[in-house]
Amino acid sequence: MAKKSAILVLNAGSSSLKFSVFRQSSDSVELETLLSGQVSGIGSTAKFEAKGADRRSLAEHVWDDKDSLCRDTLLLYVLRWIQSSLIDDDIVAVGHRVVHGGQSLDRPMPVTQDLLEELYGLIPLAPLHQPHNLAPMRILGKSYPDLEQVACFDTAFHRNQPWVARTFALPQELTNEGVCSYGFHGLSYEYVTKHLLDIRPDLADKHIVICHLGNGSSICAVKGGRSMDTSMGFSALDGLPMGTRTGSIDPGVILYLMREKQMGLDELEDLLYRRSGLLGVSGLSNDMKILQESDEPQAAQAVELFCFRVAKEIAALASSMGGFDALVFTAGIGENSPQIRSMISERLAWLGVKISAEANAGKAFDISGVDSKVPVFVVPTNEELMIAKHTISVLGQRMGEA
Ligand code: ADP
């Protein structure tokens, strides 16, 4: 019997490599998840875990610290494990999550040598993420030259924002060099927008504010399916406070720290990316669930500050569109924490936002209160599925061209 075609999705970060495998059924456009998993602890104690479609564990492996494994070895281990686990399917293509597509890349692209060079050129714009996103493309290109690869960009969804949303008040020459607002989490916003509009096509031309609240958090204003403005800007540090990142702070703080505390680049980067946010304020944890379960006053302060800033940013983004007709929560915190959704909504009562305590406590899609002026939804995100769909569509176009 002929094997079925499967798509591998890779999300390679600084210390983890996440993967998912999807199958396109012949009788439907829907994709079925076959496997998912990750290698975590890359650079320290690497651990491989894989789960089946039913979320049951299929495999686990922990490498000894002494093994000092490089990324190439770990990626090839994952690929071989997947190939040996798939009985009825063959991996025909790989879709990659890439954080930065720069000023010009506004859609997923097939991976070619030219594209790779362009993406390597964007490393200065995302030095902590982009090199890790690109490494698997090079390794797979060498070891599996016949495997089709597609790059999907987190910035692409925001590419066509109005110029006012993209421009910092800096001298023109810096803006022209690319010092502008790019926005991130685009694959999540794209998935959530499509999913919401499938269920509520009446919202297609409306103003929607989507809150992606996870370890990394941002908010996006969407109108007519298009990003109009977003809270993350030039880097993934901007906007909301996050697990360990500051979010927006007065740039004068950076000057003060450099001048008065003689902080250098590495120390500042560590402070802004890894020692701030929920962790910095609470002094306890970057994990929202742990903070919500804690009795420590600093934990409550971190939670309150987070909700204050989310509500403030929602109002700002609503203003970017001239109002809003729907509010959506997604990602780890947005999907799973009724308390956070409730605290944020309370702060937006003046805008007519009210949620139903009962629907909010359950796993409802529509959590609006009966008298809410703005409907409020919870839509679980699925960036991997979005990447798999893009991969199929890019390769479909290529085959159509051939
Ligand atoms: P990432 O940005 O790494 O993809 P996620 O979207 O998985 O992160 O979100 C992780 C965050 O979601 C963590 O802060 C975690 O505590 C939070 N979270 C997950 N489940 C819950 C829950 N039931 N209550 C509160 N927070 C939760």
How is this structure best summarized?
By secondary structure, the protein is α/β, with parallel strands linked by helices. The protein has helices spanning 71-85, 113-120, 130-143, 163-166, 172-176, 186-199, 251-261, 265-274, 277-282, 288-293, 297-321, 331-336, 338-347, 357-361, 383-401, and strands at residues 4-12, 17-24, 31-40, 47-52, 57-62, 89-98, 109-110, 148-153, 207-213, 217-223, 226-230, 326-330, 376-378.
Write the layout of secondary structure elements.
Blueprint: E1 4-12, E2 17-24, E3 31-40, E4 47-52, E5 57-62, H1 71-85, E6 89-98, E7 109-110, H2 113-120, H3 130-143, E8 148-153, H4 163-166, H5 172-176, H6 186-199, E9 207-213, E10 217-223, E11 226-230, H7 251-261, H8 265-274, H9 277-282, H10 288-293, H11 297-321, E12 326-330, H12 331-336, H13 338-347, H14 357-361, E13 376-378, H15 383-401
Parallel strand pairs: 1-6, 6-8, 9-12, 12-13
Antiparallel strand pairs: 1-2, 2-3, 3-4, 4-5, 7-8, 9-10, 10-11
The structure holds adenosine-5'-diphosphate.
Provide a descriptive summary of the structure in words.
It is a single chain. The chain is of the alpha/beta class and 402 residues long. The protein has two domains: 4-153, Nucleotidyltransferase, domain 5, CATH 3.30.420; 202-383, ATPase, nucleotide binding domain (Nucleotidyltransferase, domain 5, 2-Layer Sandwich), CATH 3.30.420.40. Helices cover 39% and strands 21% of the residues. It has helices at residues 71-85, 113-120, 130-143, 163-166, 172-176, 186-199, 251-261, 265-274, 277-282, 288-293, 297-321, 331-336, 338-347, 357-361, 383-401, and strands at residues 4-12, 17-24, 31-40, 47-52, 57-62, 89-98, 109-110, 148-153, 207-213, 217-223, 226-230, 326-330, 376-378. It has an eight-stranded mixed β-sheet with strand order 5-4-3-2-1-6-8-7, sandwiched between helices. A hairpin with a 6-residue loop joins strand 2 and strand 3. Helix 1 (71-85) crosses helix 3 (130-143) and helix 6 crosses helix 15 (383-401). It is globular and about 60 Å long. The structure holds adenosine-5'-diphosphate. Residues 214-216, 243, 287-289, 292, 331-333, 336-337 line the site of adenosine-5'-diphosphate (ADP).
